[in-house]
């Protein structure tokens, strides 16, 4: 029987996040002949984004646009998804493994009595029709492969792991505006206080420059910020640096912080504790700068520079500025 799969769009600052196009790609990989893959856009004042989403090779793009959906609230967003699927039970819904997706996917799974596989980094067809989902466990030390026994499926995809689907203007999905009957909500969002700056989102950055306790001060992060600026990357940190007050906890990478999987991760003055590695070991290329040649970070690094970060980082900035000028 053919399946109806949906992908819930992740928005940030009024724009579609890259993880949305990655989740579409995943849903398309999981679909077979005769299956449909459609997107669900939820928010306020978002109709303009629908035509952009329509270029991703989808069957339909459903838009649930209502002032009450401006800020994320689980009950409201679940109601919006219910407005799209109506009385039928969805066969599968894909989400980004983001703050919203991590909250909404299990809620939807509980509502439709389905299974949830979260933090997926890869999926494949095992040849007998089963879609096998891979997810890291034990802070990235091992991977488990899971299949759904039965539907409906609820899946969250870790950003930066599944290649994003490219927009193709020749593919135009049908746009469907969906009425939203606002439920009486138990939660009211009074204010959204943004802690992180408007710079590149750490979890989606292609290049991450991270500082550890070796950075030594708030000002010690400046050379890292300058290098990130040149490389178009984002700045992250170890918990050591956050605990020392050198930077905000919003930058923390690791087991109890964010998980990043950039193309290039540059660890500056970070020893490489297992809890830190849990958040960055999936990076494509790891470069470590540390003055201790025995630092454990060198065991996971593709390139290691034994030296003082305050000498090495400005030199990297200078050289990359020349190359990228
Ligand atoms: P340190 O271990 O102190 O290392 C500093 C490094 O800087 C050293 O290797 C030193 O050689 C080098 N250095 C010093 N000066 C220079 C210089 N001028 N140039 C170059 N190198 C220099 N940690 C995380 O990062 N993320 C987490 O999510 C996290 N979660 C945790 C959860 C739990 C339950 C626990 C118990 C711990 C957790 N930790 C986490 C903490 C973790 O165990 C380490 O303590 C922490 O990662 C160490 O941070 P660091 O590498 O910056 O500091």
From TrEMBL:
InterPro entries recorded: DHS-like_NAD/FAD-binding_dom, ETF_a/b_N, ETF_a/FixB, ETF_alpha_N, ETF_asu_C, ETF_asu_C_CS, Rossmann-like_a/b/a_fold
Keywords assigned by UniProt, alphabetized: Electron transport, FAD, Flavoprotein, Transport
Required cofactor(s): FAD
Cofactor note: Binds 1 FAD per dimer.
SMART domains in the record: ETF
PROSITE patterns: ETF_ALPHA
Domain of life from the UniProt record: Bacteria
Domain named Electron transfer flavoprotein alpha/beta-subunit N-terminal: residues: 5-192
Biological process annotations from GO: fatty acid beta-oxidation using acyl-CoA dehydrogenase
Sequence positions that bind FAD: 213, 238-239, 252-256, 269-276, 290
MF terms (GO), sorted A to Z: electron transfer activity; flavin adenine dinucleotide binding
Pfam family, any one: ETF_alpha
Record has Electron transport as a keyword: yes
PANTHER family reported in the protein's UniProt record: ELECTRON TRANSFER FLAVOPROTEIN ALPHA, ELECTRON TRANSFER FLAVOPROTEIN SUBUNIT ALPHA, MITOCHONDRIAL
Protein family membership: Belongs to the ETF alpha-subunit/FixB family.
Name of the protein in its database record: Electron transfer flavoprotein subunit alpha
């Amino acid at each position: 029987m053919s399946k109806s799969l949906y992908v819930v769009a992740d928005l940030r600052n009024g724009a579609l996040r890259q993880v949305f196009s990655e989740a579409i790609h995943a849903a398309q990989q999981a679909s077979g002949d005769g299956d449909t893959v459609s997107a669900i856009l939820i928010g306020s004042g978002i109709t303009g984004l629908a035509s952009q989403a329509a270029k991703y090779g989808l069957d339909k793009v459903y838009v649930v646009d209502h002032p009450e959906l401006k800020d994320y609230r689980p009950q409201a967003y679940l109601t919006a998804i219910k407005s799209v699927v109506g009385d039928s039970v969805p066969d599968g819904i894909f989400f980004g493994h983001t703050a919203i997706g991590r909250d909404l996917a299990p809620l939807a799974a509980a509502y439709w009595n389905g299974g949830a596989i979260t933090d997926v980094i890869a999926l494949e067809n095992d040849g007998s029709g089963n879609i096998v989902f891979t997810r890291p466990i034990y802070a990235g030390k091992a991977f488990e492969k899971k299949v759904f026994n039965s539907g409906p499926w609820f899946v969250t995809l870790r950003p930066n792991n599944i290649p994003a689907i490219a927009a193709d203007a020749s593919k135009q999905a049908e746009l469907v505006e969906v009425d939203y009957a606002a439920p009486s909500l138990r939660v009211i969002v009074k204010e959204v206080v943004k802690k992180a700056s408007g710079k590149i989102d750490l979890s989606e950055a292609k290049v991450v420059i991270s500082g550890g306790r070796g950075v030594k001060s708030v000002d010690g992060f400046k050379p890292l910020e300058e290098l990130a600026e040149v490389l178009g990357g984002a700045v992250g940190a170890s918990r050591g640096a956050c605990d020392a007050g050198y930077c905000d906890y919003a930058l923390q990478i690791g087991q109890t912080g964010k998980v990043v999987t950039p193309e290039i991760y540059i660890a500056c003055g970070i020893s490489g504790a297992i809890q830190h590695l849990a958040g960055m070991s999936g990076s494509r290329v790891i470069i470590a700068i540390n003055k201790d040649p025995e630092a454990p970070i060198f065991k996971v690094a593709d390139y290691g520079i034994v030296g003082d970060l305050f000498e090495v980082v400005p030199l990297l900035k200078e050289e990359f500025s020349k190359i990228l000028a």
